[in-house]
C-alpha cells in the first residue's frame, strides 16, 4: 500500500516519533511519500534527522506563482469550488485567517497532484493543525482519503479555530495518542463519528534500550528534556530547585533542549544562585539524550500541558523512574509509587517535596521502579506493535474507499 504523510515543518528534534512510525510501517511493506510544507529553520543535530530531511519533498520550495498555477487545472470543477468554500469557511473561524487557508488550498492541490503521480492510496497527517487542513483540502479536491493523529495540547486549546469537527467529519479516522487524547476528540466529534476515533500510541524501539545502564549513586541527578516553552513548565522546576538549594546542595539537574524561554530560564537560574546545580545542554542527538538519561537517576517532566511525552517513554525504556505532572495522558503511563511520582501541575512546593522524596529513596527501590517502568513501556509503546494497529486502520480506510 502506498501512503503519503503530510507534515508542516519536518523533521524537527521533537519529531523522532514520526520518523520511527514511518520506518516501522516501511518495515511492514508500506511505501511512504513524505510531503512537508516547509523545511526546518534550525540546524539538525541528529544525523537521523538529516538523513530523513533528504527523503522529504517540501511543498513550499515551489515558487508562489507555480504553486498557485497548480490550482488552474481544478478551476472548472465543481469540486474545486466546494473545496474553496471549505477553505474559506475554516479560515473564517481560524486565527490565521482566510488568506492563509487559501494558501493551504494551493498546497493541497500540489499534494493531490503528487499523490496521483505516486499512486498514493491514503494520506496521513500528524497534528490536527495546518497539516491536517492540507490533507482535508487535498481530499476535497479529489485526492485520497485521509486520517490524522492528534497529540495535544495545541489542538485542544483551539478546537473551533482549527475546525477540528470538520476534520474529523471528513476523515476516514482520527487518532489520539492516549485515551485522554481520544476523549478530547470525542468532545468535538458527533456521536455518529465516535467509531472513527482510535488510540495508537507513539512508540519506542525496545531494542535501542536492551542494555539499560545502572543509574549513578548519590547525590541525586535529574534530567529534564524538552523545548524551552511555557507549557513544559521548566520555570516551575527552577523554583522547586530554589526551595531545595540548602536542603540538597549536591542535587544536579541537566536541562536538555532549547527554545524561546532560554533567556528567562538563565535569568531565573542566576537569580536563585543555581548555576552550580543546573546545566543547560542545548539540543542533543539521540545518543546525547540517551547519555543524559544514563547519567541521571530520574527524569523530571513538570509540564502544564501535554499529549503524552515521548521523553517519558524513553526514560522509562531506559529504566529510569519519572517525576511528572498529573495531566493529560501522562497518568496512563506513569504509575504513582510504582514507576515514578505524579504531582499537580504548577505546584513548586509539591514538586520540591517529591524531588526530596526521590533523593531519600533507597537505590534498590529506584532500580525496582525503573525496571517496572521499562516493562510497562515495552508492553504499551513498542513502535512495531503500534504501527501494526495503524496499518490495519490504513488498510480498512483504503478498502472502504475502493468499495464506494
UniProtKB/TrEMBL annotation:
It is an enzyme of class 2 (transferase). This is Glycosyltransferase. It comes from the Bacteria. Residues 215-376 form the Glycosyl transferase family domain. Gene3D superfamilies: Glycogen Phosphorylase B (3.40.50.2000). PANTHER family: SULFOQUINOVOSYL TRANSFERASE SQD2 (PTHR45947), TEICHURONIC ACID BIOSYNTHESIS GLYCOSYLTRANSFERASE TUAC-RELATED (PTHR45947:SF15). Its EC number is 2.4.-.-. GO terms for molecular function: glycosyltransferase activity. Keywords: Glycosyltransferase, Transferase. The keyword Cell membrane does not apply. InterPro entries: Glyco_trans_1, Glycosyltransferase_grp1.
